[in-house]
Amino acid sequence: MTCEHYWRDGILLVERGERDPHRETCDDCRRAHLLREQLIRGLPEVGARATGDPHWQSRVWSRIAREETARARRSYWLSGGVAAACALVVVCVTWMARTEPRSNDSPAASQSQVLLPASNPERDAQPEVIAIHTREHQQSPRSATLGDGRPRLEIIKGKIPVRGAVSAAVHDRILYAVPPRSEVRMYRADRLVLRCPPAQASPGCTPDAAGLIAEAELATAGEYQLVVISSGAAEPRGTLDGDLAAVVAAGGDYKVTELSVR
Amino acid sequence: MRRLGYVRSSKAPSAFQEDEVDAAIACGDRLRALSLLMTRYGDQVYRYALAVLSDPVQAEEVRQQAFVEAYRDLPRFAGRSPVRVWLLKIVRNRCLDSVKATKRWGARFKNEVAAEPELEEPGPGDQLDRARVASVLVDCLSTLAPAAREAVLLRYQQELSYDEAAAIIGDRSGTLQQRVARALPVLRKCIEARLRAGGRDDV
Fold first, then answer.
1. Domain containing B104: what range?
2. Chain B residues with CB-CB distance to A67 below 8 A
3. Using CA atoms, how far apart are residues B115 and B167, in angstroms rounded to an integer?
4. Which residue out of B64, B180, B189 would a mutagenesis test of the A interface target, given it has the greatest number of A Cβ atoms within 10 Å?
5. Residues B32/B24, Cβ–Cβ less than 8 Å
6. Taking CA atoms, what residue in A is nearest to B184?
7. Which of A46, A56, A64 sits opposite B42 (nearest CB)?
8. In angstroms, rounded to a whole number, what is the distance separating the alpha carbons of residues B50 and B60?
């Protein structure tokens, strides 16, 4: 009678990388183990000579080219639609402005397009204003756009932005103005790339009377996380999760804004 | 002690090669990254899809779809797992889609299940036994339950560690170890039976 221990229990020990003392004393199990080894050696050979379509790579490139063309066509029509909608809005606003005089004219409102995020009870408690500007509006960005209402995040784009998610393009700049005693950190792919401690001047960090302004160019594409720590800023370790955990451990308070740069 | 579960074979692509792909991705050079990925992993991806789907046409379709999708998603690749694991995850999802589509098609038109892949002709000399075992293995793998087949293929055909295979499938490593430990005896019995039957046919 042959020993069935190996196929019943011993094989699981092998898969787990654990020692099987029984096998050392059982010839049947040693033979069974050799059979298993033979079987395992054969598995990488499965389909080893099968290569499929010899021109598959060029077919992949063709598919990608077709997809890109279709996407470009879609965005062309979409941007045309957006432009038409914008033109309609401008006409309506102009018409309304002529027929009804404004009661509260604000110089700041005429210089920048201010987008308020959708209503959210948590955000409404501490409203965040995202102001998106074109380059033509940036002759004096700080004096023109900063003032009260900090923290204020501005994305300075080369093109007219589409209203919606917080996103930016490579080589856009961000400008983050925060109140006194707040620290700004910028992470890319969860790694710290810029740190502006409160009231400390350094490249990209400018303290001013109302707090601090962090300014940086979004040089590469990727996912950015902008963090404002309003209290309890612990010494950063360099990774987003670790640093936020340290802030929480220090009893601090923080706010993260995700920014997708394409 | 050597932990078998975490041993990478010398056949697996070296870390250097993966670094090259990672570097291309980090530079945002999607064209080069995809080109490297296709050169390095194209055949592996096809063999895996073929072993899972048992249909060369579907396997080829899955391979092409997977690389198109990889190109699209490269900017979102965060490097949390090796690029090969990430790629195989895409391939697995496309294989699952393909299996579902085949089932729907079969149910709607009452077609038979896709034909089994052609067995490879045995080569001359000492290649004979290996090629024969390999072709029998293809047959026997298709008798395993899909989950067990997937675990065996990822671990021993693709030569991933259990942790990497678990990341692709979305199960725990221990579960996969048990699945493989249950599947191997079934494979062994199947191979022995088929080889015996083949031997009798030869006589």
1. 12-116
2. 68, 72
3. 31
4. B64
5. yes
6. A36
7. A56
8. 8
- A contact test, residue of B188, B189, B192 with most A CBs within 10 A: B188
Domain with A12 in it: 5-43
Does residue A60 belong to the interface with chain B, where contact is any CB pair within 8 Å?
yes
Examine the domain organization and report whether A123 and A34 are in the same domain: no
Q: Say how many domains are in chain A.
A: 2
How buried is A104 (Cβ within 10 angstroms: 0-12 exposed, 13-18 middle, 19+ buried)? exposed
Please name the amino acid found at residue A20.
Answer: D
Residuewise pLDDT in 10s, chain B (203 residues): 333 333 333 344 455 567 788 888 888 888 889 999 999 999 999 999 998 888 899 999 999 999 999 999 988 887 788 888 999 999 999 999 988 888 777 666 655 444 434 434 434 444 446 667 777 888 898 889 989 999 999 999 898 999 999 999 998 999 999 999 999 999 988 988 888 876 555 43
The reply to whether B170 falls in a domain is yes
Structure tokens at A78: 């979409």
Q: List the single residue in B3, B72, B117 with the smallest CB-CB distance to A17.
A: B3
Total domains, chain B? 2
Residue A36, chain B, CB below 8 Å: the answer is yes
Tell whether A39 and A115 lie within a shared domain: no
- What are A57's two structure tokens? 């790579």
B29 and B107 co-located in one domain:
yes
Instruction: Tell me: do A125 and A202 sit in the same domain.
Output: yes
Q: How far apart are the first and last CA of chain B?
A: 46
What's the gap in Å between the CA of A182 and the closest CA on chain B? Answer: 29
Q: Report the pLDDT value the prediction gives residue A157, as an integer from 0 to 100.
A: 64
Q: What pTM, to 2 d.p., does this model score?
A: 0.51
